[in-house]
Amino acid sequence: MKELRKNIFAKNFFSLLPIILLYLSVLNEFDANFLDIDYLSFNFSYILIFYWSLKKIKNFNYIQIFFAGLINDVVNGLPVGLSGLSFLLICAATLYLRSITLRPNILNDWIYFLFTISFVNTIHYLIISYIFTINLNYEFLLVNNLSTFLLYFFSHFIFGLYYEIFIGKSDV
Fold first, then answer.
1. Quick one: what percent of the chain has pLDDT higher than 70?
2. Which of 96, 151, 103, 153 minimizes the C-alpha distance to 119?
């Protein structure tokens, strides 16, 4: 693995993979309706943005995150800029968490992620329902929030393993 980390092309590719995964996740709206599981949906892009913004890798910058939000709005038929605003609010929350944290802890990050996505989803859904008068299913939104929260715990370990193997160890 050391040879792989020393290879500049491979290191750049592996550091770009999270942003590529973010673009793929906003282009492909995941919904588990084809599995006949009611109300199973989650925001994988929120998980990606929270984790990789917290790690602060060089190729995962705010302009690309906002642009991914614009693409998400076009794909999902939302007002343009709304998802970009939500994504940047998640980035602002991770910036704050990074600045106050002395020792990273999965449990603290996980709880903070719940508060972050709850706040961001509240702002997102208030704008959709009151400004654009789109009807929402609040039960679905609550399950979506809970599913995203639970999936973050498992994604943290997978992304952490990826980070250690392909990008390098970090203190964050």
1. 87
2. 96
Give CA angle at 63 (14, 12), nearest 5°. Answer: 15
Gap between the terminal Cα atoms of the chain: 21
Q: Where exactly are the structural domains of the chain?
A: 2-167
Is pLDDT larger for residue 156 or for residue 78? 156
**How many C-beta atoms surround the C-beta of residue 34 within 10 A?**
6
pLDDT tens, position by position, 146-164: 999 999 999 999 999 998 8
The DSSP string of 48-83 is HHHHHHHHT-TT--HHHHHHHHHHHHHHHTPPTTHH
| b/e burial code for range 63-75 (CB count within 10 A of at least 16 → b) | eebbbbbbebbee
Largest CA distance in the chain: 55
